[in-house]
Amino acid sequence: MYESKESIEVQLIPLERFAEPIFDFSQLPFGITAGVQVENVSSLMPPSDFEYMEPDVGRWKMRSFNSTVKFGLVHRYSLSIHDGDPIRLEKAEFLNTVFALLRIIRPHRRLGGASGTISDGKAQFNSLTWPHDSLDVPEGVKLFSVRNKDLMELRNLLPTFLNAMRGPNWPFRMAVQYYYMGYEQNDWKARYLSWGSSALHALYSHKDQKIIPRVKKFLGEATLIYDPAEYPEFEFLEPNPLTIKDILEDVNEVRHDIAHGDRIPDRFFTVGGGRPTLSGFANYLTVLDDALSFIIRETLLKILRENLLEHFKDRHRYTQYWKSLGV
User: Fold this and answer.
1) How much is the pLDDT for 31?
2) Does the structure show a pLDDT above 50 at 1?
3) Beta bridge pairs of residue 282
4) What is the rounded CA–CA span in Å between residue 22 and residue 144?
5) 224 in helix, strand or coil?
6) Which of 60-69, 193-202, 204-213, 249-258 has the lowest mean pLDDT?
């Protein structure tokens, strides 16, 4: 555990779930970048420090802080930077940027956050936030847990991601923003719009007819939506064979209906058209929600992993890129 005799600022975002029993906890604390690591924060945040809040906040919202064993993404930085200093303001937002990338790599709920100071090894948190009760993630990622390889990829991709988010790479940056906003929506149509009308257009085209061929070309039409290696529920259920080719036309139809205020056909709500889950049979619309989330995050990750950012700096450059691919 990090110790210091000087006062430093600390920000913390709780992490909901680790992939037990396969997660190697001996790797914690796991350094992400200077001042940022994933660690066991149980001693830093003892439940006794937060018990007084429970009557007002509620036990469910406080679960990430009242737990005796808890883990988080932690950022520590010096207090020597003055209030209002642009560098300090950037540092105050830095952890949110790191978390945004982790959420692309391994989607999961955000359980709130905390900020304060550490002096002589003792933390004093003066600001806490909690998620809205109605916010949730798509059905297909509800069982996702953080794995060791996710933290390794977070560390590896973060420099490229930071450069992307600090520069004039507007198609990429807007897609990241709308992808993140999708998780902050308490209405499925609003989430679908953030991902399907904003993020998708930002990455592929402002013209509807160009989106489908470009997605197929970029991600591969035979790519599985539910890769068994990524979905822990496949320990209990048969793998789902749906591919991008199978589902993209329907994703686009629902996206178009919502964007233009049209009625969504009943067939998308039929339970029998969906897939089995651990909590019952999901309707087809739930599957499309999973697929749209998958398409956006896999596109963002491919751009980062393959160093394609130069092609996504503006609309002109990515138009030329798509033309080079023949779509």
Assistant:
1) 97
2) no
3) 275
4) 13
5) strand
6) 60-69
